[in-house]
Amino acid sequence: MQYKNENGWIKSNEKKEIFYFCDEYKKFLDLGKTEREFVKEGVKFVEAKGFVPAESKKSLQVGDKVYYVNRGKNLVLAVIGKEDIEKGVNYVVSHIDSPRLDLKGNPLYEEFELAYMKTHYYGGIKKYQWASLPLALHGVVILENGESVEITIGEKDEDPVFTIPDILPHLAAKIQGERKSGEVIKGEELQIIVGSIPSTIENKEIKDRVKYAILEILNRDYGMVEEDFISAELELVPAGKAKDIGFDRSMVGAYGQDDRICGYTSMRAIVDLEEVPERTAICFLADKEEIGSSGSTGLKSDYLAYITGDIVEKVKGNFTEMMLRRVLWNSQSLSSDVNAGVDPIFKGVHDIQNAAKIGFGVVVTKYTGARGKSGTNDADAEYVGKIRKLLNDADVCWQIGELGKVDEGGGGTVAMYLAHLGIRTIDIGPALLAMHSPFEVSSKLDVYETYRAYKVFYTRG
Ligand code: MN
Ligand code: MN
What we know:
Blueprint: H1 15-31, H2 35-47, E1 52-53, E2 65-70, E3 74-79, E4 89-95, E5 100-111, E6 114-122, E7 135-142, E8 148-153, H3 172-175, E9 191-195, H4 209-222, E10 232-238, E11 243-245, E12 251-254, H5 257-271, E13 280-286, H6 303-316, H7 321-329, E14 332-335, E15 339-340, E16 362-365, E17 369-370, H8 381-393, E18 398-400, E19 410-411, H9 415-420, E20 424-429, E21 431-432, E22 440-443, H10 444-460
C-alpha cells in the first residue's frame, strides 16, 4: 500500500500532468450533466479515437474497437483482446446518472401571478441543499408527432436559470425551525419558479395568464404543448461549471462526480490503451444506479449479458448460451464507484483506521452494504489479493475504505448485479466529500490515480 509522499504527490506522476488531466475531466463534466448528454458526448469522444458502432461489424477481430449505445443512456466500449474470449472479459462498470430533480408529468401551475413547476427528486438527496441555488434544465421532450426536442437552459452566461426559493430566516422559525433535516424542504416543496409576466392574449376565458404565457414561450421555442411534459425527461441540475477548489487548486468541485468521475476515467483509460490488451476490455457506463439499478438501462437489466453475447458471437462466429455463461463466469470486473472521504468536520461517522481520505489515491472497497454487510457483493479474498498486487506492481496510489462506521449508515453499488452474473467483482473508485450534494468535492490526485488503476486493469488485470 502506498500513500502520498511528503511533498503531497506521489513520485511517479507530475503534478502538471495530473492537473492537465483534471482540466479535461472538468470540461467533460460540463458537457455531460445528464446520462443522455454523457452518452452523446462520449460517442463523439470515442469515435474521434477510432471506436466504431458495434452494429457496423459482422465479425470482430483482435484489436477491434467498438461501442454500443442502449436507449441513449448506456454507453459500452469494447476493445477485443488477444486471449480466447471464453477465458473471460475485464469489465470496468460505472454509472453516469446522478441525483437530481425531475420535472413531474404535469408540472406547471400558477398562484399569485407566479408560475411554478413541480419536481420529483431522483436518487438520495438532502432536499434542503437544492433550495436557493441556480438550477439548469436539461433533457428531452417527445412531441406528439414523435419528434424529439432537446432542451438545455441555464448553462450559457446569457441563459436564465431556475430556482427553488427557500423561506427567509425572518419568517422561518415556526414553519421550518422545528422540522427534521430531511424535511427542512419537503419533497412537495421542491418547486422551481419559472415566470411572472402574464400573457397579453385577448381571450377572457384564460384565467392563469402567467402560466399561459409560459406555455406560449415553450410553444414558440420548442413547439411544445402542455401535454408534452408527460412524454419528457426534463432534469434540473445545478447550473454552472466544474471548478478548481482551494488556494492550491488541488481539488475539483462539481455536480455529478458520483459517478461520472469513474465514467470519465474508465472511458479515458480504455481509449488511451497503448496496445491491444490480453483480455477483451469493456467499459460499461450504466444508468439508474442512484435509484437501485432498475429499468432497461440499469444494471439489473440483461443489457450487459446481451452485449457480451453479441461480442462473443462476433468474435467466435457462433454462439451458444453455454458459451456466454462461461464467458461471464470467467470474467472479472471493477465496480467503479465513489466512496466517502473523511471530512474533519464530520469525522465521527468514520472508523478512521478503515476510512478513505481524499488525496490518498483510489479506494479499494471490499464490501459496501448496511448493517451486517446487507446488500453487498463482498469481494473474495483471492480477488482482492489479485487487485492489490496489480495496483502495487503498477505503483498506483491506493487505499482501502469502508463506507462509514459499522451501523452508521451504508450504501450500495452495482457490484452485486455484476457478481450475480458470475463476474468476479470488487468496488474501486475515488473518495468524495459532500457526495450527492449539488457540489461534490474530489481530489485531483485521486482522479488521476483512478484513471491509472482502470488502465492497468484493462491492460494486465
Ligand atoms: Mn455512485
Ligand atoms: Mn450515488
